[in-house]
Amino acid sequence: MADERMHHVPVMAGNVIGLIRPAPGNVLLDLTVGAGGHAEAFLLASAPTGSVVGVDRDPAALELSRERLAGFADRVRLLHGDFVTALTRLRAEGLRPDAILIDLGVSSMQLDDPSRGFSLREDARLDMRMDPRQALTAADVLADSSETELAELLRAGGEEAGAARIARAIAARRRTRPFRTTGDLREVVEQALHQHGGRVHPATRTFQALRIAVNAELRQLSEALPLALDALPPGGRLVVLSFHSGEDRIVKEVFARAAREGHELLTRRPQKPDREEQRNNRRSRSARLRALAKGGSVEP
Length: 300
Description:
Blueprint: H1 2-6, H2 13-20, E1 27-30, H3 37-45, E2 51-56, H4 59-68, E3 76-80, H5 83-93, E4 99-103, H6 108-111, H7 138-144, H8 147-158, H9 163-174, H10 182-193, H11 204-214, H12 217-231, E5 237-242, H13 245-260, E6 264-265, H14 275-280, E7 288-293
Parallel strand pairs: 1-2, 1-4, 2-3, 4-5
Antiparallel strand pairs: 5-7, 6-7
Helix pairs in contact: 2-3, 5-12, 8-9, 8-11, 9-10, 12-13
């Protein structure tokens, strides 16, 4: 299994590298390095002197990257942290990367590990933390959020039409029994929506919304995008791969505002995976890729 994870094919790798335009000596800041697929593609394309600073909130993902990228030796630096913390730290160190990549969402490695609690396919502890150092878990969110807050997070993170019904059902259930496992939540959503299966499980949006809330993903993205643009030198490229309409909407709005301020949109509309990739990798089907080049005179 470890070998399969290390050699997984990153989503839209060709498009991502085409927008980044690697060259020898370039530095890529990969804020979601994951298993290192995009980083590896960049290092190969920018040989012999291109380098990557890889960041991830998930220590397990960093370990996979460390193994996968071991052959590139001192061309790779890996850091544990979230977007905002990493960008703030690296800017203080004086890093001015030629490109920044943000690959959003949950990885297949995280989904395939039942102990992480991201997947509704198997019964597991309600965790969903990308960073295990974080105190807040999915069970905590379900226990401590008001019914109104639950409905709001289901709409914001899952665009769930039945948000009010699900929130009401969660509030009713926890009055007698706390939520402990993914199976507990899956069962309540099925009952609230009167659905039990189908091509897309009725709890899919709820699980997505809860994961986004636990990890403050939309807030992290909103705060990180201006910091990332500021960290780039003139001509530097910011590339974002999203898998959720809420994420893509934030990226679209920030990029549109940046374009009005003199930066260059490299993607007027989001790029999408071709049909072959969608057939071979189900996770890629919702992918949307946008890119921006920082305006101003290119520094010598």
